Amino acid sequence: MKSDRLLSILLLLQTRGRVTATELAERLEVSVRTIYRDIESLSAAGVPVYAERGRHGGIGLLAGFRTDVTGLTADESRALFVLAAQGAHAALGLDAALGSALRKVMAALPAPHRPAADVISRRVLVDATRWKGGPGPAAGLDVLRDAVFADRRLRLRYRHGGTGTPRTYTVDPYGLVAKAGVWYLVADRRGQPRLFRADRVRSARVLDDPVRRRAGVELADLWEELRRRVEERPGGLEVTARVRRDRLGLFLRITAPWLVERPEDPENQGRSEDGDWVTVRLAFGVLGETRVLLQFADRVEVVSPPEVRAELARAAAAVTALYAD
Description:
With 325 residues, the chain is α+β, with helices and mostly antiparallel strands. It is built from eleven helices and eleven strands. It starts with a helix and ends with a helix.
């Protein structure tokens, strides 16, 4: 509806300052011509909005103009109180600020929508953290947060997966991303996008140098590119394994990053003579990654290839020797 679009334009201008007509059109999924017509409608309604043409132009509001949050629909009011990343606020030290902000929003809501918003806040809870066994909180997350908020470069001591020796990097952070309870730093290193797991950062220091981000590159776009690289990365080592049916659910959750495909219908798979097993296929990047299967002990058996069976046998023998009398 046009009224919703006008309110969206007004709120975007209040929060972003000067915005180009092209960006407004892309955000609201209309044409640039429609945006200019909407600007004329806002101006006719008494909103002090102006447009400047040229390379550095844009659409903006006269300094000092503000409006209260009015016109929220019932669903919009509910949506404000369903926070999909509640743990993220605590990790960033913003829990108190979140509570204060929600109280202010509640006071600004149209009176008819306040009861519904209050019910949603007490009836819906989203916990983005994993069950036990997931990574613990990143000890240096506060330093990463400070660098991101202050737009400063970072010096990291970082341990890559599968290696024991940390390496030192100087990076330009774009932001932090929380995915399935794991925090990631998205940053450039020497102008190339990189992804760093926060729980693998051994030490971090905020530098005095201002961050050097590439022009026009946003965190959301960079995260999408890096996420796609991880998900589409081909596994160089394909593994076929048998899993006890009573451990299949847990196995599928833990090994999700390496699964080639989920068993189509595990309930209908045949039962072997020596037990109740389900066959799965996985793809690992390197041989060392296959050691993740050892946590299932005798509830998982690798069928092929032989080098993976040998790797797990060596690892199991090393553990046995470590605990032998």
